[in-house]
C-alpha cells in the first residue's frame, strides 16, 4: 500500500471501504465540471473500479489516492495522476477536496506537495500538467504556488451551465 505522510494529512491507496465516499464525489453534479463527468456512476461500477485500484500505474496509466487527515483513516478528498506516460515521463494531476469546510485549510496544498515529490522522486517524471477551468481561481492559485506555469488557454473547451468555458493548461517541469 502506498502511504505518503505529511504534517496534517496523508495519502493512501484506495480501499473497498471508500465506496460510499467515491460514490458521493462521482455523483456530485457540482463537481462534474472539474472532472468532465457527464453521467452518474453506479455503486456497482465504483465497486468494480475499487477491485482493480491495486493495479500498477504503468498498467492503468493512472493513480488515484485518498487524502486523509492524520488523525483518521477517512478520506476527505482525492488526488490523481492521470494520462501517465512513462516514455515521455509526464502525467496529469487533479485534486478534489469533497467538503467545502475542508477547503482552504491547507490540505490540498499539502496533498499536492506530497504527490509532486512522489512523482518527481519515485516515478522519475520530468513534468506534470493540470487542466483547470479559468474561473476556478482557487485551483489556479494552488498550482501556481508550486511553480506551475500557464502554457495555454483552451478556448470554449468545456460546456457547463449552458455555456462554453475556457480551460487553462498549466505545467511544472522538474529541473
Explain this structure to me?
- Pfam families: Acetyltransf_3 (PF13302).
- This is GNAT family N-acetyltransferase.
- It comes from Flavobacterium aureirubrum.
- InterPro entries: Acyl_CoA_acyltransferase, GNAT_dom.
- With 175 residues, this protein is an alpha+beta fold.
- The protein has one domain: Aminopeptidase (3-Layer(aba) Sandwich).
- Helix content is 28%, strand content 37%.
- Helix 1 (19-26) packs across helix 3 (43-51).
- The two termini are 29 Å apart.
Structural class given helices, strands, pairing?
Answer: alpha+beta
Can you tell me the number of structural domains? 1
> So what's the overall shape?
globular
CATH architecture, by name, is 3-Layer(aba) Sandwich
Helix/strand order = EEHHHHEEEHEHEE
Query: What is the third-level CATH name, the topology?
Result: Aminopeptidase
Organism: Flavobacterium aureirubrum
InterPro entries: Acyl_CoA_acyltransferase (IPR016181), GNAT_dom (IPR000182)
Domain N-acetyltransferase: 9-171
Protein name: GNAT family N-acetyltransferase
Brief rundown of the structure:
Pfam families: Acetyltransf_3. The chain is α+β, with helices and mostly antiparallel strands and 175 residues long.
Amino acid at each position: 500500500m502506498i502511504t505518503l505522510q505529511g504534517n496534517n494529512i496523508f495519502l493512501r491507496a484506495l480501499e473497498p471501504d471508500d465506496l460510499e465516499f467515491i460514490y458521493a464525489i462521482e455523483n456530485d453534479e457540482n463537481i462534474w465540471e472539474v472532472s468532465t463527468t457527464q453521467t452518474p456512476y453506479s455503486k456497482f461500477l465504483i465497486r468494480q473500479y475499487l477491485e482493480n485500484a491495486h493495479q500498477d500505474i504503468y498498467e492503468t496509466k493512472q493513480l488515484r489516492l485518498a487524502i486523509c487527515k492524520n488523525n483518521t483513516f477517512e478520506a476527505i478528498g482525492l488526488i490523481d495522476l492521470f494520462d501517465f506516460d512513462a516514455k515521455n515521463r509526464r502525467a496529469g494531476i487533479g485534486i478534489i477536496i469533497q467538503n467545502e469546510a475542508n477547503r482552504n485549510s491547507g490540505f490540498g496544498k499539502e496533498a499536492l506537495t506530497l504527490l509532486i515529490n512522489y512523482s518527481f522522486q519515485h516515478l522519475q517524471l520530468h513534468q506534470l500538467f493540470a487542466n483547470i477551468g479559468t474561473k476556478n481561481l482557487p485551483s489556479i492559485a494552488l498550482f501556481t504556488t508550486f511553480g506551475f506555469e500557464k502554457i495555454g488557454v483552451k478556448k470554449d473547451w468545456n460546456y457547463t451551465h449552458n455555456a462554453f468555458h475556457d480551460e487553462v493548461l498549466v505545467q511544472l517541469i522538474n529541473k
